[in-house]
Amino acid sequence: MPQVSRTRFAPSPTGRLHLGNVRTALFNFLLARASGGDFLLRIEDTDAERSDPAAERLILEDLRWLGLEWDEGPVAGGRSGPYRQSERAAVYGEYAQRLIESGQAYPCWRTDAELKAFRRARMAAGRPPVYDRQWAQLPEEEIRRRAAAGQAPVLRFRTPETGRLEFDDSIRGPQVFGLAEIGDFVIRRSDGTPSFFFSNALDDALMEMTDVLRGEDHLSNTPRQILLLKALDLPVPRYGHLPLLMGEQGAPLSKRRGSAGMAEFRDAGLLPEAVTNYATRLGHALESVEQMDFGGLAAHFCLGKIGKAPARYDPIQLEHWQSLAVQAASDARIAEWAGEAAFDQVPAELRQRFLDWVRPNVHRPADVAGWAAILFGSGPEFTPEIEAELAATGPAFFRAALEGLAAGEHSLAAISGAVKASVGAKGRALFRPLRLALTGAEAGPELAPMLELLPEETVRVRLARWA
Ligand code: GLU
User: Fold this and answer.
1) Which run of H or of E encompasses 349?
2) Staple partner for 33: which of 204, 276, 298, 345, CB 3.0–4.6 Å?
3) pTM of this prediction?
4) Atom of ligand 1 nearest to the CA of 9
5) Ligand 1 centre from 88 Cα, in Å?
């Protein structure tokens, strides 16, 4: 019986999600789904200055749009709530108190300026700037003086001075950290808010996470978090650190840079299943090249298939998945996606055939309206290059095409057969000028069904222009 994974996504509400965050959420979601476990959403908003309720709303909206519904979390509720860290101050207070009482945490009155000077001096002496615990026992009188002056202490965790901390990363394998390099770290800031290490680790334990998948940038936090959980005698989840996702330019994606953000993806008309199918394959080897729903993706998801090298965002790959998603979507969905106005110029009786014809060649909602306009609206537009090319093709070609149209039934076979017989054109030299004259475009949906959609008079006028 495989273990049931209970996982979470824990964004800080400081901006819109980008593809890297989405991949993290998705992998946690799939890991839970694969074993029938629950997926939680936790909002890490302890930094009041940077956290923004509007960003939280948009994160929820983006996750819902992607279909990454959470079993527990904001709005959904659940047995481990509240799921917003700003509402969990009492929990952090209680566990911080436990650490103080057991002597594993202590208030530290050093000011930022003093700390900076201390670090500078250590570095100058060629020693690592690890906290020296010198102020763990400040004289009572000095504490009173500082408190009276309005200073508040931070709370530091007492890290063992020697030894090693080892853990088995579920993606990267065995990891070893020397405790001497970690030093006593802050678990509560002077404003009373918990540090990331503390609230994040504590919540994972209290919310009973079995697995934590997160970005590689958190790897160096993990030893501190494991130390804290052990000190509190709380269960330690299995941590796995995902290799970074690089942008097109080779720099890591970031919320602030706004690259590959869900806002842009949605505005551009990407379909959520294109994004999720692409993201599941980012740094995760999946043999299947088919589009799958979450059930299929979860069945194929495996931690052992996640690579250790950075993955790179490739918009061309994403376009490929978008194309598959457009193929697979229902007619009603594509109609909604394209917008009703896209069909305004399409004769009602041709609507279904038009949709079937155009679908393999559209990537964006506007493409549908674009093809409707070419066929039934304003018609083709020609660049000077294409005009020159059509002129160079010569009137004989188009006169033969018109004769074929007049003689035969209104079909590509009749037109192309006449041109072939008359001017000897074949292959590309036969079909490219026809496509250009009829659509103004070098590529697009298939020609033969297009001729069935276009009224004969329209075809005649478009060919006659070059004859
Ligand atoms: N709030 C953290 C972040 O957005 C969560 C990291 C984690 O998943 O543990 O990076």
Assistant:
1) none
2) 298
3) 0.92
4) 8
5) 16
Residue 43 Cα to ligand 1 middle (Å) = 9
Q: What are the start-end ranges of the H helices in 106-249?
A: 112-124, 140-148, 196-206, 222-231
CA dist., res. 380 & res. 391, Å (int): 16
- Residue 294 is predicted with a pLDDT of 98
347: preceding bond cis by omega (within 30 degrees): no
pLDDT recorded at residue 254 = 65
Per this entry, what is the length of the chain?
Answer: 467
**Index of the ligand 1 atom closest to the CA of residue 204:** 9
Taking the chain, what is the end-to-end CA distance rounded to the nearest angstrom?
Answer: 74
The pLDDT value recorded for residue 3 is 87
Q: Whose CA is nearest to atom 8 of ligand 1?
A: 214
Give the number of the atom of ligand 1 that is nearest the alpha carbon of residue 21. 4
pLDDT digit string (tens) for 160-211? Answer: 999 999 999 999 999 999 999 999 999 999 999 999 999 999 999 999 999 9
8 Å CB contact between 91 and 46: no
Degrees (nearest 5) of the Cα angle 396, 401, 402? 100
- Extract the residue ranges of the chain whose pLDDT is less than 70: 1-2, 254-259
Q: How far is the CA of 353 from the centre of ligand 1 (A)?
A: 48
What's the token pair of residue 150? 């309005």
Look up residue 378 and give its two tokens: 């304003």
Ligand 1 centroid – CA 39 distance (Å) = 15
CA of 12 to the centre of ligand 1 (A): 7
Strands (E), 271-426: 311-312
Ligand 1, CB within 6 Å, residue ranges: 10-12, 44, 200, 212, 214, 218
**Ligand 1, atom 3, residue with closest C-alpha:** 11
Classify residue 235 by its DSSP letter.
P
**Best of 218, 236, 238 to mutate for ligand 1, by most ligand atoms within 8 A of CB?**
218
Cα(53) to ligand 1 centroid in Å equals 17
> For 363-389, what is each residue's pLDDT tens digit?
999 999 999 999 999 999 999 999 999
